[in-house]
Each structure stands twice: as C-alpha cells, then as structure tokens.
Amino acid sequence: MIEFEQVTKRFGSWTAVDAVSFTVAEGEFRVLIGPSGSGKSTVLRMINRLIPADEGAIRIDGEDIASLKPEELRRRMGYVIQSVGLFPHWTVERNIATVPGLLGWPKARIRDRVTELLELLNLDPRRYRGAYPHQLSGGQQQRVGVARALAAEPRILLMDEPFSALDPITRASLQTELSAIHRRTGTTVVFVTHDMDEALRLGDRIAVMDHGRLIQCATPLDILTRPASPLVRDLVGREEWGLKRLAVETVGDRARRQESVTGEPLAAETPLHRALSEMVARGTERLPVVDGDGRPAGVLHLSDLVRPTSGGVVPGGTA
Ligand SMILES: Nc1ncnc2c1ncn2[C@@H]1O[C@H](COP(=O)(O)OP(=O)(O)OP(=O)(O)O)[C@@H](O)[C@H]1O
C-alpha cells in the first residue's frame, strides 16, 4: 500500500505538488492523468525518492520512506520511463539482470528469470537475450524496459508514460501484456499517462491532477459518468463517449444469466465495446457468454448495451 499524506513539493517559488493525499491499495493499478505540468511525474518520482518531498509524509506498507535508504527503496520498486534508458553497451540479458545481480541472486536463478521475462513480454529468448539495445525496435526496447523493471519481482511498479512514444498497434499490445502481467502477479502499479483511453483501459482507479492538486480519484466508470469538474469532462472528451462507456464494463456485467443461445461464445470478461463489434461483424443481436471456466454464463442482447444504468448517459448532453 502506498499512502500520500498532505504531500507538497516546490521548485523555487513554484508549487508543483500541492498538499496531495491519496492511498493506492495493495495490488491496485492506479493511473495518474492530467494536463502537462500538473505534477504527475513529480508525484511518481517522489515515491522512489528521485525527488524528495518538502512537506507531508509518504508511506509504503505503513513505513515512512524518508526513513529508508533511497537505493534500498528503489531496488524494491520497478521503474519504467518513456525513453526506456537501457544501458547501450550491455546485452538484453545483462540489462534485465541489473537489479537481481545487485541483490546477489545466484547466476542460474537470474538466467531462468531472464528467460521467463522475455517469454512473458513476447520476445524469443534465443534470439534476443544476447542482442544489444540498438538492434531492437522501439517497442522491443520498451518490452525489455518493462522486463528489467519486473526482474526482481518488485511489489510496486512505477511507470511514467512508458508507451507514449510507440505506434498505436505496439502500444495496444503492450497495454494488453501489462494488464495480463498485473492480473497474474498482483503487483501494485502507478502509471502516468496523458491519454485518457489508456487510463480508462488500464486503471482500477484514475487520479486526475491539475495545477499540482488532486481533483478526482475514481473508477473509470465514475470518471466517465460522474466527472468532478469540467476539466475531467474535457479530458474524457465527448467523441465516442458511448464506446468508451462500453469499454469500461464487461459482457458478464450485463448478460442475462438464465438464457442460452447457440453460437461462438464470448468470455464474460470481454469489454462491451468488443461485444458490440462482434454483433455487428456476425450480424446478430444475441451472443452466448461463458465464464472463466468455459461454462455457459447467459446471453448478451444488443438492447442490453443501451439499457439505462446509473450514470448511463453522457453527463451534460449528447455525445
Ligand atoms: N527539477 C525541476 N525544477 C524546476 N521545476 C520543475 C522541475 N521538475 C518539474 N518542475 C515543474 O513542476 C511542474 C510539474 O512537473 P511534472 O513533470 O510533475 O508535470 P507532469 O504533469 O508530469 O507534466 P508532463 O505531462 O508534461 O510530463 C511543472 O511546472 C514543471 O515545470
């Protein structure tokens, strides 16, 4: 668990972070979003003490980070940045092995961990473990950056716009991989982005910052349907609001459990916008749904997608 209590950071007379308090639960995926200069990166870099806080307290699992050695603190956390920052003269394997090496892991364990991480990030270990960063594409370098951050099995992963320099397809596949890794490992993630679609897709909760202050911290559904201010509404945008709304709920949330129908089923965790796309592609208004074990879990009707729920329409008008 990460706790900020009334944390302030000033650069000269400029207050970059202004009395911010929040808690990130163990295992949560927390996104920080906001306009340029709103203080997101400063908040993130205070967690691993790359930037010291001026006022307030930051605690990890109840322990004030001011009482920990910065190097020790950083070894407990993974950190991924947009520019990746791999060591150019080191192989992929050596880059990934940096922190386990510092922690004194046995060689065989490090080698196995590098293999496991390359496979997890969809990089063939035989081909890439001995490669140098300049031999990799931008997306592959960022995969290695994520593998390096995860190498010593940190309980906290800090990510500062890690995918924003990537093309949309590579970005989407890394988002999917990161989500799967998060679900599998239960790592607590704090992720800075400018992109609301990325925030809605990845976050359990989204914290919106403006001028160094935290102005809303809520689930993706609440950010969409109950924006706390015009700024939050603008960040969400009106374009394709309905599809964004469908993207934050799953087929399982709306399926009619007692019904059954034949056809290729959708998994209950499929987002509703994908279900809509399937209906259009198959020319059908009903799709069978299965649970995580492949057992029948009801039927989703086209009309269920527009069924009014609380906060079901765009706040303040048409989208
Ligand atoms: N080392 C520094 N010295 C002086 N001012 C700084 C320093 N680091 C950040 N700032 C200022 O603090 C404010 C917050 O910066 P920060 O990088 O946290 O914003 P951000 O929300 O992450 O922005 P962006 O989305 O553009 O990366 C900005 O006005 C920035 O100019």
TrEMBL record:
The keyword DNA-binding does not apply. GO terms for molecular function: ATP binding. Keywords: ATP-binding, CBS domain, Nucleotide-binding, Transport. The keyword Signal does not apply. Pfam families: ABC_tran, CBS. Residues 255-316 form the CBS domain. Transmembrane segments: none annotated. Residues 2-236 form the ABC transporter domain. Belongs to the ABC transporter superfamily. This is ATP-binding cassette domain-containing protein.
